[in-house]
Amino acid sequence: MSFWRDPINFIIEWAKGLLASIGWGPGWATTVGFVIGAFVLAAGAMFFVVFLIWYERKLIGRLQDRFGPNRLGPWGLFQPLADMLKIFTKELITPNGVDWVAYNLAPILSVAAVLMMWAVTPFSKTFFGVNISVGILFLIAVGGLGEVGIILAGWGSNNKYALVGALRAVAQLISYEVPFVISALVPVMLTGSMSLVDIVEAQTPWYIVVAPAAALIFFIASVAETGRAPFDLAEAESEIVAGYNVEYSGLKFGMFFVGEFLHAFTASFIFVTVFLGGWRGPGADQIPVLGLVYFFIKTFIVYFALILFRGTNPRFRIDQMMELNWKVLTPLSLVVIMVIALVDRLFVGAADWQRTIILLVANLVILVVAERLIRRGVKTTRPEVGSRERPIASPDNLFIQPGSGAKG
Amino acid sequence: MSGLQVVFLIVAVVTLFSGVMVVASRKMMHSALWLIMTLLGVAILFATLQAGFFAIVQVLVYIGAISILIIFTLMLTRRVMDEETTQVIKGWWLPALMAVILFGLLAGLLATWEDFQGMLNELPADVENLAAFGTALVNPAGYVIPFEVASILLLAALVGAIYIAMERKEKAE
Amino acid sequence: MIPLSWYLIAAAALFCIGLFGVLSRKNAVSILMSVELMLNAVNINLVAFWHYHTQLQGTSQIAPQVFVAMVFIVAAAEVAVGLALIISAYRRRETPVVDEMTLLKG
Prior knowledge:
The complex is a heterotrimer of chains A (408), B (173) and C (106). By secondary structure, chain A is an all-alpha fold. Chain A has helices at 7-21, 26-63, 79-89, 100-117, 135-156, 160-191, 196-201, 207-210, 212-226, 237-240, 250-275, 288-312, 318-346, 352-377. In chain A, 66% of the residues lie in helices and 0% in strands. Chain B has two domains: 1-83, NADH-ubiquinone/plastoquinone oxidoreductase chain 6, subunit NuoJ (Four Helix Bundle (Hemerythrin (Met), subunit A), Up-down Bundle); 130-168. Chains in contact: A-B, B-C.
């Protein structure tokens, strides 16, 4: 195994050899490897968030016709670091009347639940934490732990806004788990395995081509699971101040913040794993490190879509959110899974490309019919509200912004 | 004593202690949190039995759904939740005595069984044949009727729960 | 390499704790939680026997797995209906305490 093809496994093998040479058995070496790997992955994820925050703030800034962070470092890249320092040095205030255990456990749970999802995701052909046979179930189960974290925060804070936020969050997360799970069953059904490694390996072509309807439902449900706009009812600033995290300050608030960004990123790479072929791409089978690159490129594309989704949609009202779930997504996902099962069974003898086309057509028909049915339910078409032309901020040079202090 | 036995003992002690706290806590919310701890412990016990699938399903169904529903209900019935008064009935020693006697009887009965001291050896890694399990659930010669009955039970429970918990406005006026 | 007896004893203890909870707690939600403890104890037993019989027979035994799955399903259904009943009763009587639900006492 050469270094350039698969650097991560090369280092792991080298470290194992090192441990073996000083007289440690293979069992101990594996245990130590897992511990170090978990630590590195978790620490890496936490530092990665710093970059994610910058990326998201910059993009949201562009969407909202402003620059975003641009003062510190090139293109404002060090702004999140400064924010991080600020959050570290803030006083940790524990309000009177909180439930101590629940109040302190909640931020830890909300980050840990997300980090646990990294353990089963295959980042490349040879690089994954563990390959358990029920990977998708694990992802969903761990998502449930995050919900527990939010509830604990809302209840433990002893604050009515926090409690309302937590109640909303529970209602939303439990409801959206239904279409999430059902649409995740489609790839499982097409693969015949619940292991994420197997699902990625079986994706010729990607499942988004085979089952676009399921992919759409999965995407919407996973946005709702992350609790970001337009599904950010749990922390609607303008209605219930900030929802479940209103009583938190300093590092504990930072944990929620990090957990939310990390969850959004994790949701996008789960979408990539399940529907966009994970690490698959030209040459990734031979050179595993290429798979890692493809994986992150795809993830960032999905993450970009997620931010666009966030930046361009207004927040749902709570009844609209519930209606979207129970009257649209859940029935639609049930129809999708039944149709795909039937069609897949009917054309069991056909060649792969024929089945792909048939499934694609079936999915598109479902989507068109669903769209028509939803249109009939819409009561009125609102008149177009025109706005006058206004100038758009467009710097001459994208990379050097006025007053940014950046030299290059 | 092997490593697995140590793991088992620690997990079992934690699980049983949390179980005691579920029935002994004064604050309802704390007892719900201890319940989550117990359920997690049971999931780990499943994992030590090499039933990985059921360990995950335990977390998914019990922690992800059931305990969250319980906490949700606790939030909706908030009046009594904050009470610091005792949560058990006056003559609580009688159930305690019954529980202890039942435990003694169970342990005594189990001890008379000849396989009681049997060892659980490590099984091959892929022993939990999920494909066979799934096929048996939908096989007419297997368990398709219990499976369908269970589905109908779930559906009935869903409809029933919604109907019972629905607020009927006309009666309130 | 864990003796079967350990699992059985642990499950029996958990069952008895649940039984105590069902008989002694006042709050209906608490009683439901204790029932969950009892169901979990049963599940530990079932999974332990699954392991034991799989080890004896050499192939994975289906029947215990089906039983465990049934226990999960029944537990989910029971909790959904039970909590709905509690919420409904709370709306009418303003209390989740079982002792105070005395409508039929006259």
